[in-house]
Amino acid sequence: MRLLQRTPGQPASSLAPAAAARRRRPFLPLFATAILASLTLAASTAHAADCTGANLLPALASVPTAKAATLCLLNHERAARGLLPLSPEATLESAATSYAQTMVQQRFFGHVSPGGQTITDRLASYVGPALDHVTGENIAWGEGAFATPSAIVKQWMESEGHRANILNRNFEQIGVGIVGGTPSGGLPAVSATYATEFGARTLPSSEQAAPIRASASSSEPVPAGAPTGVSAKTKQQISKRCHRVARRTKGSKKTRTARYDRCMRKELRAAAS
């Protein structure tokens, strides 16, 4: 899926200059997927009291607690609209944490790094083996009371593009990254930078039972029972065609995966004959 970047912007509200020097609101540029459903924000909001550590600075609550609180708050927002919860995913979490750290260390804030890295580069190992996928990214940083998980999620929910990512029914998995400090040089004890990587993907049946790879596989998955003796180049060409067929197939992930396998067996038999 082609990804589009919306114009970054800060929240409309702001603090008085004296307070802003101590407690800066989160900065929230956003990255949204190409197709975002029109969603209505329900009146009910997530209750921070239900999520341990939601109102504490990550440095005080511990980073793992802050990550869990952030996911808890995001899933509260989804549950309030009848959406399924997001599940933590290790590859996405690693990418989110690494990117938050990079923004702090290199003193920049945006969805493209000074070296030109984009969300596509960050999530290459996540989407590499997938038949199809959808991804999105939200980032933010804050200081003082505005660096807590509840403050960050509140600001995301008050921003149309960030809220659309959080409430996107296509997303199934998430990685939350939180690092002490900010791109502006905030002290790690009283500030934090957040990155969340959203995703959903369909893996070929031969990949589903295997552990997630650290990088995309260079070989094309071949269904069990498929003929052998076909060159790697031909298999790659066939796989690309079957990927397209599977993506056009209506139904569940299981249905699309089964369609891919049938396509591969049929075309490999034809190529081997």
H/E topology pattern: EHEHHEHHHEHHEEHHH
Number of strands: 6
Q: Identify the strand order in the major beta sheet.
A: 1-2-4-6-5-3
The whole-number mean of residue pLDDT values reads 77
The percent of residues in helical segments reads 25-40%
Descriptive overview:
This protein has a six-stranded mixed sheet. It has helices spanning 17-20, 58-61, 63-80, 90-106, 119-122, 124-127, 149-157, 160-166, 205-208, 232-248, 253-272; strands spanning 3-4, 30-33, 87-88, 132-143, 173-180, 191-202. The chain contains eleven helices and six strands. Helix 3 (63-80) packs parallel to helix 7 (149-157) and helix 10 (232-248) runs antiparallel to helix 11. The protein has 273 residues and is α+β, with helices and mostly antiparallel strands. Mean pLDDT is 77; it is low at 1-24, 30-46 and 207-222. It is elongated. Helix content is 40%, strand content 15%.
Quick overview:
With 273 residues, the protein is an alpha+beta fold. The protein has 11 helices and 6 strands.
Strand and helix map with partners:
Layout: E1 3-4, H1 17-20, E2 30-33, H2 58-61, H3 63-80, E3 87-88, H4 90-106, H5 119-122, H6 124-127, E4 132-143, H7 149-157, H8 160-166, E5 173-180, E6 191-202, H9 205-208, H10 232-248, H11 253-272
